[in-house]
Amino acid sequence: MALPNIIMQLRLKSYLYKNIRLSGYGIVPPTPFTRKDYEARDLESDVIHPQKGAYFSTTTGIVKPIPSDYFITKPSIEEQLHNIDPKSSIWICHSPPYGGKLDVSWEQTHLGSKALTNQISKRQPILSLHGHIHESPMLSGTWIEKIGESYCINPGRNAQQLHAVIIELDEKGILYSLQHTVFGNCKW
Residue 105's pLDDT is what? Predict the structure, then answer.
C-alpha cells in the first residue's frame, strides 16, 4: 500500500489514509546541543536548567538566549503525548523510546524519551517510527525492537549508505513485512 504524494506536518496532528491513522511528534528531551527549539522536559516532574550558551530561534529567525525558566514554562513531552490521537496505529516521533536498543549514543548512554516509552507501552500502536540517535542501530546491532506488541523502528543514518525501512501493511493495517535497506529483513 503506497501513501499518496503528500508533505504535511504531523506535530500532534493525525492523517488518515484508508483505514490507517498516522500521528506525529517532533520534540525531544534535552540534549547536550545549545539549540533548544525542539526540546522539552521529558517527564512532567523533570527539572531542567539550560546550559550556558543555550538559545532558541523565533519564527522570524531571530536567535534569543534561553531564559532560566524556559523548560518549566513549556509543557513536558509527557503532557503533550496525551494529545496524540488515540486511534492512531502508526506514530512518527523524532525521539526514540528510552532505555532499549534504539536510543544508544556514541557515549553508550540512552538518550530517548521515557514519556514516549510509557505511552507506547500503554497505547500499543502497531508501529512507532523514530530517528534522532542516528548511530544507535550501528552501536546496538538492531534497528527494531518491540514494546509490548508495538514495533519500534530507528533506521539510523550514515554518510556511506541509505538507511531506510520498507514497511508493508495490508489494507486493514496489518503489518506483514519490515525490511531495512542495510540490515535486511526483520527477524520476527
Answer: 93
